[in-house]
Amino acid sequence: MSRETISQSISIVHPISLSHGKNAEVWDTSGKRYIDFVGGIGVLNLGHCHPGVVEAIRDQATQLTHYAFNAAPHAPYIELMDRLTAFMPVDYPVSGMLTNSGAEAAENALKIVRGATGRTAVIAFDGAFHGRTLATLNLNGKVAPYKQKVGVLPGPVYHLPYPSVDNGVTCAEALKAMDRLFSVEIDVNDVACFIIEPVQGEGGFLALDIEFAQALRRFCDENEILLIVDEIQSGFGRTGQRFAFSRLGIEPDLILLGKSIAGGVPLGAVVGRKALMDNLPKGGLGGTYSGNPIACAAAVATLDAMTDEHLKTWGLQQEEAIVSRYQTWCAQGLTPYLGRLTGVGAMRGIELANADGTPASKQLAQLLSLARDAGLLLMPSGKARHIIRLLAPLTIEPTVLEEGLDILEACLKQLD
Length: 416
Description:
416 residues, alpha/beta, 4-stranded mixed sheet, 12 helices, 18% strand
């Protein structure tokens, strides 16, 4: 199958062609089976072809395949927003809008905060990833490959260290950097918002320091700055609860959603305080495909499956299996390259590091190939692409999860 018609600027992690999948398993066009620990990069928390999602897609496709909501509202959009806003674990009145992707949700959030505050500056964090569109590129806390050769980016945007037990950056260090930023770089009164991931995805599955999150919330309140939390990858049960910000003891002003919101169908959303979401003029928000009826139906079916009981059970089962296996590998001295276990809940990363603590990027590249040959698909993360991010569906069968971890163990032993 030729790929000459596809832009070579798209980077491919696994040079295979997939044919079909079921829950946590996929098959390529040659019939080879793989256990999927990538999950469409966090899109398939309910697995491939979840029966409820598939049924909802089929039913909706026979009724209405598309209508632009801003031209004429349709029932699936309205039903989903009623369900989605009720699903948000916050105490204030919520409203929102649907988008085509997480990046588009981030772009619209920037418009919303500009309209609400009259300010333009944004503070993001090192290691962040918020999308590939022009404005979100500047929010990303990493240059290569996202910002290379694209010229001047929309701003102003400033970056701070991301404090986490997983990267050794303390709350005190991050607050000191923030104090310097507002003493040297920018007037605090020019800042519209902070944008932060409660668990960084692309950054290596780093869990945000709880003390810093609460200090940041207080700082924002004191200075009339809005707080945007990006739950695009960490949301919808990835950490064992509806959204990862709940573990931080804070409530964001705006929340970015995407990835696992609709069982694999393209959809995103920005939701938050109703007064913020309503502040732009009529027509200031919208989009032709945003909130497509089929995507909305898939998202409603996704929410049907994501009860608190299910999320807690799925998260605990996966977390316990991963943590137990990692601890055994450490006790056994499985490989000299085994580094830290990062993240929380079922959102876990395994670092590969050299004896001196430097990233073992070469070994991770080797691991990706070894695991793929053995029937396991993995995804890299981290600034140096040295952290394996584990994103198996939450619905993975325990026997399949153990089989995948067995393959990962065997491949880790082979690293040189």
